[in-house]
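Researcher: Good morning. I'm working through a list of sequences from a screen, and I'd like to move beyond sequence-only analysis. For each chain I'm collecting a predicted structure so we can compare shapes side by side. This is the next one on the list. No need for commentary yet; just the structure.
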Amino acid sequence: MSWGAVGQGGPPSGVFAAMATPLDGEGRLDHPALNRLLQHILSHPVQGLCPAGTTGEGPLLSRQFRARLTAAVVDLVPTGTPVIPAAVAATISAVQEDVRAYADAGASAVLVGVPYYYLLGDAAIFRWYEVLAEDAKVPLLLYNIPSKTKLTISPTVIEKLATHEQIAGMKDSSKDLEYFQRVREVTSSARFSLFSGSDTLLIASAYLGGDGLIGAAVNLVPELVTQLWSAALDGRRDLSRDLQRRLVEIVEACRRVGSPVGWKTALSLMGVCAPHPAFPLEPASLAASNRLAGELRELGVVRSK
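Model: Good morning. Structure tokens for this chain:
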């Protein structure tokens, strides 16, 4: 399906899961665990799924693996559910091949980061996305994650890209609310979906006109995140603040273990998947896992033994 078929009458919006990638002890995709994870996520009103991104350890997985993962997700979810895998690489040819492989796997769109390593200027970043968009057979979402790429996509560049028919929106993981607000301002007249990548800023991004969240916490507590999004949209401020405070506590507990390992450790404590990360990441120590288990029990995420 095309991205344009989603969300009639306006840009696609809502809560999307930045999916974890269940692996077995040999680094292979754990299909039963993937099915459990998807059932857990989609038991609540989650609008879409984003596999092979930062939370999903995508940069450590081969193109073939990421394409198979995407195809598996597409096969397991209800027809029409947006599936938006991520591509982050340093060469234009690598990302073009990623986009083609994802399109063949049935992806609705592809989340594309800027090339890491060199400090590129606005003209180079604009050209990067322009060339990719001209070649892509599915829509692209810009991926602004300066903590990983060391680059920020400037609002000036975003304003020019927002009108391209193959640029559908953006995920912003900068945690910079002034930047987020400026991006919303320069894209307000375009059909451009602006998603926050920060679970802890869901309320703020909603009030600034964001279209939704692509978040890691959706793997763990989809009910809480979807309730928070609904409350924020409805203007229920007291409830929103209470739910956001609880979500922040959960996110901080997982972050203390490390990202993305903390999320997978939490999912293992819930019995969803094993805690094995992609090579060369190391699993959480027993002490860290036990500490997280205690924190998540206190927060009501994991049942007491």
